[in-house]
Write a structure and sequence with these properties.
- The protein has about 400 residues and is an all-alpha fold.
- About 75% of the residues lie in helices and about 0% in strands.
- It has helices at about 5, 15-40, 50-80, 85-100, 110-135, 140-160, 170-200, 210-230, 235-255, 265-285, 290-320, 330-345, 345-350, 355-380.
- Helix 3 (about 50-80) packs parallel to helix 5, helix 3 packs antiparallel against helix 6 and helix 5 (about 110-135) packs antiparallel against helix 6 (about 140-160).
Length: about 400
């Protein structure tokens, strides 16, 4: 058997292909399983407890797969140096996949082995990304290596509690992972929002504001640092309000009314708006006026969920040589992912007695959105570029 041909497939031509396919698949499988657990029709106590499994897999499974696909693709563009392809990319993808599967073999495999396999993915990814960054001396991209290592720390805190090495560290780890992913999104937004807006709207010129960029990221770091330090009340509320103000100003500086005619743009702007709403709800939760879980899901389902779906769509089109226009089906998917966030984050405030039904509606909307993504983009991710180029 010619092993070279096994790995000479478009799916392994560039990082975004295989990891976006894995992310889209996991977004469906994980939520189907979690809905069954939530309704009590399935018991999934494995290496993780049920609630920690849900949080870990959506953050360090789904979200990290999107991050891996994006960075392995973007770093190649930023540095001009090659990133993983072929058999090495397949190996990294399998490492991610084993991290999802092995927790269900708790009792058959040593817990330390299960933890090691899942833990290893982020350091390996950081190492593989650091090589082209250092070779090209593209030092401003080293920030992503640091953020990946902080994600590694968050994952370590989760596993430390699961292994019985520490107590009460898993929730801290989850909070740290959410914080780092949101900060990473804010960093990436400064690089891609102005560029994507100018490319999507001819004749548009976006003026960047480095001060607002720094303040928006710095304010987010402050809010999350206070939460990790268990600080609430006035200090957290004021910090969150400041984060709302500077991030709103930043987004307004990029905003052009015509984005609403371009789904590839408005999906990104609405995703950023969910992050701003997350800071608003954080300020309210500092005085227990709303549940902290609503702010958490504004950041995760709203900010991370909406933005990752939008970014996967944009990157998949751009890096397969296709026109930067989404189909009507995918535009419906963009609406549905926002409906899922709306149902999960805002409707429980108005209709608390209907909570279970609302969560079910949110679940169906999420599944419909990612079903459309996989239906439309699985053939794109697994076929050669339309322009005949490599990648």
């Amino acid at each position: 058997m010619n092993t070279h041909k096994i790995f000479d497939t478009p799916l392994l031509g560039l990082g975004f292909r295989v990891f976006f396919a894995l992310a889209g698949s996991s977004a469906l499988i994980l939520i189907v399983l979690w809905n069954a657990i939530f309704k009590g029709t399935l018991s999934a106590e494995n290496y993780f407890s049920s609630s920690y499994w849900h949080a870990h897999e959506m953050l360090l499974g789904y979200s990290v797969a999107v991050i891996a696909g994006f960075l392995l693709t973007a770093v190649k563009n930023w540095t001009g140096k090659p990133t993983l392809t072929g058999d090495k990319l397949a190996g990294l993808a399998l490492l991610w996949l084993y991290g999802r599967i092995l927790p269900f073999y708790a009792g058959l495999l040593p817990d330390t082995f299960i933890a090691f396999i899942d833990f290893a993915f982020l350091p390996v990814l950081a190492y593989q990304i650091s090589k082209p960054v250092i070779q090209a001396r593209h030092f401003k991209s080293l920030v992503f290596i640091g953020l990946l290592l902080l994600l590694t720390l968050g994952n370590a805190l989760i596993h430390a509690e699961m292994l019985g090495l520490c107590q009460n560290t898993a929730w801290i780890g989850i909070q740290l992972v959410v914080a780092i992913i949101i900060i990473m999104i804010l960093v990436i937004a400064g690089r891609v929002f102005p560029f994507f807006t100018e490319r999507g709207l001819h004749g548009t010129l976006i003026i960047k504001n480095p001060l607002l960029d720094a303040l928006s990221i710095g304010s987010a770091v402050t809010v999350f640092a206070l939460q990790l330090s268990a600080v609430s009340g006035l200090f957290l509320a004021l910090s969150a309000i400041f984060a709302v103000a500077v991030n709103s100003a930043r987004l307004a500086g990029w905003y052009v009314q015509r984005i609403w005619y371009v789904p590839l743009l408005w999906i990104l702007y609405t995703g950023y708006a969910w992050i701003i709403l997350g800071f608003i709800l954080t300020a309210l939760s500092a005085y227990s006026w709303v549940l902290p879980s609503l702010a958490l899901h504004a950041f995760t389902l709203g900010g991370i969920g909406v933005l990752t779906l939008g970014m996967m769509t944009r990157v998949s089109l751009g890096h397969t040589g296709r026109a930067l226009r989404v189909s009507n089906a995918m535009a419906v998917g963009f609406v549905l992912i926002n409906v899922a966030a709306l149902l999960r984050v805002l409707l429980p405030l108005a209709l608390p007695n209907w909570y279970n039904l609302i969560i079910y509606g949110s679940t169906l909307s999420w599944l419909a959105a990612f079903s459309l993504f996989m239906f439309v983009y699985a053939p794109i991710l697994t076929s050669a570029r339309s322009d005949g180029q490599e990648g």
